[in-house]
Design brief:
heterodimer, A: mainly alpha, two-stranded antiparallel ribbon, globular, B: alpha/beta, Rossmann fold, five-stranded mixed beta sheet, 15 strands, 43% helix
């Protein structure tokens, strides 16, 4: 059972970064970023090249993933989402745009990075045996970096001026603007930050799970599942959703045979949403 | 003005006529054989269809660079039309309709049972043939006759590999792990039957994982403690195999791994490293130990075109080569698949991809009651220190 708890914790920490990024963009922009998984893939490939191929130290490679994917997010917001949202306030317009950006990044990734799975050498090697559980050190490292990054992100949101501005926009865009918040500027920052979290998740997970050009859609689906559980647009909900999904997977695969774990998770999610469509910590819509 | 206008029209018609005449003479001088590739070229399984496409394009490039493919004294240029079916049967059907609508008679692909099964009516109606990489026997059994299996099926390789491991490595117990999709589940079922027939103790036959899984700790945490001598990764994609192996090793698994699908050495080395040493898979003609000079030229051309070699191509290099060589033996097959089928029964050449003299022909009668399989040699590989080495070369016959 220790192994199950360890699996849930380690998995949850990495899911958390994905969920935080997507929920931040939703909160700020009211956009479901369907390209979030693809941004995660780009982050993975940046670390693959910088650390795995060019042998630059891992922290620099991780920073490069963050910067490159944040830049992609910034450019998307500045040149795609902002003009479209200025011209149309229909939600399906931005939804379609988000799907389009996902397909674009999918195709670009395939052309640029090729069809193969890519992996990097272990940043740290060895396995720690603890109370009957096998815990690879590289996963322990990823766990602590993910926790540190998430803590840093929460501190930024909670205690800095830009963080407060982002929270104000998330709560009420018009009121924030009326109080002097530069909504355009902070929306770009929010989108870039959300994308950066996806890039960091990619840069971290390429060390444990490798990456391939087609992994984006599945990553997006998992990220959506987490924020559906926790409540879209709520930071605490994203964290809760990430760990709940991770533990559901860890326990499900341990206790149930075959395809039952995911079937049970999805059926459970449907039933849960019937009673609480806004998720655990989300506000009731409408 | 009218005179000028007439002159303009006349000169335009003359130029247009000249262009058309040139086009006809050019096409008469360089007749073209168009080959379709219909397979998954995006998403996590992209490598399956893309490698098909790259192989066909590389072969076509090599042939075209030499002036074309000689059939009955005439040199044909080879043109490859590749379409991505995204592993979706609906798209695969639309692709097949498009390709046959273009007059294409020979289609390489699709890659899985669902897409391969979906396009059968289209291919049959258009009097075309296709070369799927899907193992479902119904595709190749009479009354079906227009599909030809492009590689070794799991139910052909599995029993041979398990027997080898039982006899040579003392394997007594076995566990199966499959992705939760139709093809891998079918392959697991067939592997299970083969293992039972060999008297191996089945430790687990229910474990599956969802497509897109990247953290395999949860699924392997319940499988590894059962400590089977061999874990079979049924129908495993090249992207998943190294992660599964590395995770199982980190969870303390000491036994062997095998699969009946083709893998890529570079991917295994990059993602799993030495954890994948001893992993047994089915390969094609790419191993340095067995490949011919022609295969080496192909590898060089493929690597130049795509950027790097992929060992999966060792099995997929065969399809276009076989199609064109049958046409060479029977020129009527260029436009008539019934002629192609007639020649299949007697077609037998030296395998151009292997150093050793081995026959290359259409096989599979024992499984499909008719020769509806390309006779790709059953090359069983072991991964060690970053490369594959050949354990043995068998045949489905």
């Amino acid at each position: 059972m220790t192994q199950v708890i360890v699996n849930g914790l380690l998995l949850g920490s990495t899911y958390m970064l994905m969920a935080l990024g997507i929920t931040l963009i939703f909160a700020i922009m009211n956009v479901m970023n369907f390209a979030h998984g693809q941004m995660y893939v780009f982050g993975g490939f940046v670390t693959y090249y910088v650390f795995g191929q060019w042998h630059v130290p891992y922290p620099i490679a991780l920073a490069a993933s963050a910067v490159v994917v944040a830049a992609i997010g910034f450019l998307f917001e500045r040149f795609l989402f902002r003009p479209v949202m200025r011209r149309s306030n229909r939600e399906e317009t931005t939804m379609l745009l988000a799907v389009g950006t996902a397909l674009l990044l999918d195709s670009v990734a395939l052309v640029v990075f090729g069809e193969k799975q890519r992996g990097v050498p272990d940043v740290v090697s060895g396995v720690w045996q603890f109370a009957g559980a096998y815990i690879p050190w590289r996963r322990v490292l990823v766990f602590f970096i993910a926790i540190a990054l998430a803590t840093g992100f929460l501190a930024f949101i909670q205690y800095t001026r830009p963080g407060r501005a982002l929270r104000a926009i998330a709560q009420d865009r018009e009121t924030a603007a009326a109080h002097g918040v530069d909504v355009s500027r902070y929306s770009a920052l929010g989108f870039a930050l959300g994308a950066m979290l996806a890039g960091l998740a990619g840069g971290l997970l390429v060390t444990t799970e490798a990456v391939n050009a087609g992994a984006g859609s599945f990553a997006s689906i998992k990220a959506f599942t987490m924020i559906m559980i926790g409540g879209a647009g709520v930071v605490s909900g994203a964290i809760a959703g990430a760990f709940l999904l991770a533990f559901a997977e860890a326990i499900g695969y341990y206790l149930m045979p075959g395809s039952l774990p995911y079937l049970t998770i999805l059926v459970g999610l449907i039933v849960f949403l019937l009673f609480r469509p806004q998720g655990l910590m989300g506000k009731r819509w409408g | 003005m009218a005179k000028h206008k007439f002159g303009f029209i006349a000169s335009t018609l003359m130029v247009a006529g000249g262009v058309i005449a040139l086009g006809i003479s050019a096409s008469a001088a360089d007749p073209v054989i168009r080959i379709g590739v219909n397979g998954v070229m995006s998403g996590p399984a992209a490598s399956w269809g893309l490698v098909n496409k790259y192989c066909a394009e590389t072969t076509a490039d090599m042939i075209n660079a030499k002036g074309g493919w000689l059939i009955a004294g005439k040199k044909y240029k080879i043109e490859v039309v590749g379409l991505d079916d995204k592993n979706d049967p609906k798209i695969s059907v639309a692709n097949a309709e498009k390709l046959t609508g273009m007059g294409i008679k020979y289609i390489i692909g699709p890659n899985v049972d669902t897409t391969a099964g979906a396009i059968v009516p289209v291919v049959e109606k258009a009097k075309a043939m296709n070369f799927p990489y899907a193992f479902n026997k119904d595709l190749y059994l009479p009354p079906r006759g227009n599909s030809v299996l492009g590689m070794i099926a799991s139910y052909q390789a599995g029993p041979v590999i398990y027997k080898y491991l039982k006899d040579k490595k003392g394997v007594k117990s076995i566990a199966f792990l499959a992705r939760n999709e139709a093809d891998p589940l079918n392959q697991r079922k067939e592997g299970l039957e083969a293992a039972t027939a060999l008297g191996l103790k089945i430790m687990s036959s229910e474990a599956t994982y969802e497509a897109g899984t990247t953290d395999f700790n949860p699924v392997l945490s319940s499988l590894v403690p059962q400590a089977p001598d061999l874990i079979v990764l049924s129908g495993v994609a090249p992207a998943d195999a190294p992660l599964l192996i590395k995770t199982a090793r980190e969870l303390g698994y000491k036994g062997l791994f095998s699969t009946e699908t083709a893998q890529d050495a570079k991917v295994l080395q990059e993602v799993a490293g030495s954890a994948a040493d001893g992993f047994i898979s089915v390969g094609g003609a790419s191993n340095a130990q067995i490949r011919s000079k022609y295969m080496e030229d192909f590898i060089a051309a493929y690597s130049k075109k795509v950027g790097e070699w992929n060992d999966e191509a060792g099995t997929k290099v065969y399809a276009l080569e076989m199609i064109l060589r049958v046409m060479q033996q029977n020129p009527k097959a260029v436009n008539d698949v019934s002629e192609f089928k007639k020649t299949m029964a007697t077609f037998n050449i030296k395998n151009p991809f292997l150093k050793e003299t081995k026959p290359l022909k259409f096989v599979g009668s024992a499984y499909f009651k008719q020769p509806r399989q390309i006779g790709v040699p059953m090359v069983v590989n072991e991964f060690k220190m970053g490369t594959f080495s050949t354990l043995f070369v068998g045949s489905v016959e």
